[in-house]
Amino acid sequence: MNRQDKGAIIQDLSEKFANNPFFYITDASGMTVATTNKLRRLCYERGIEYKVVKNTLIEKALETLDTDYTPFKESVLTGFSGIMFHPESGKDAAKLIKDFLKENKDSISLKGASIDAELFIGHDQLDMLANLKSKAELIGDVIMLLQSPAKTVIGGLQSGGNKLAGILKTLSEKEAA
């Protein structure tokens, strides 16, 4: 690979890192060709882009960004590295890795992830990343929490109105009798 090809790859990766707030760096060095093809197929089906890139090219692409990825240089960018990009959700790639590991034990491991410029390093972070709520889910939870007291007040007012109507009806029947 010549210098021009490397420059094009670095430019492409820089754009992907800048446009995707969620990416995962994995180690799939122990996988066979058939297992790798299964992983790529699963990524394609779930809308996740998977690329295998040299660590030096990943490092140079990360240097072009505003976020400090120095911790990745020390512990993540070693050995075999594959990158997973998903533009919409920070947890979809983590779920994919967990699902893939159910059928293919010890085939792939999480080296590191960046979720909205927050860094997560190590395979032990996988469970937490898979359970992350998306921004839309968090907004929905907040709206539900805000609506709950209002619904209680409205319900109380409506039931109180029915009681008041019943009392007035009873009083008017007593006066008429």
From TrEMBL:
GO biological process, one term: translation
Record flagged with keyword DNA-binding: no
Keywords for this protein: Ribonucleoprotein, Ribosomal protein, RNA-binding, rRNA-binding
Keyword Disulfide bond applies: no
Molecular-function GO terms, alphabetical: large ribosomal subunit rRNA binding
GO cellular component, one term: ribosome
Assembly mode: Part of the ribosomal stalk of the 50S ribosomal subunit. The N-terminus interacts with L11 and the large rRNA to form the base of the stalk. The C-terminus forms an elongated spine to which L12 dimers bind in a sequential fashion forming a multimeric L10(L12)X complex.
HAMAP family named in the record: Ribosomal_uL10
General function of this protein: Forms part of the ribosomal stalk, playing a central role in the interaction of the ribosome with GTP-bound translation factors.
Family: Belongs to the universal ribosomal protein uL10 family.
Name this polypeptide is given: Large ribosomal subunit protein uL10
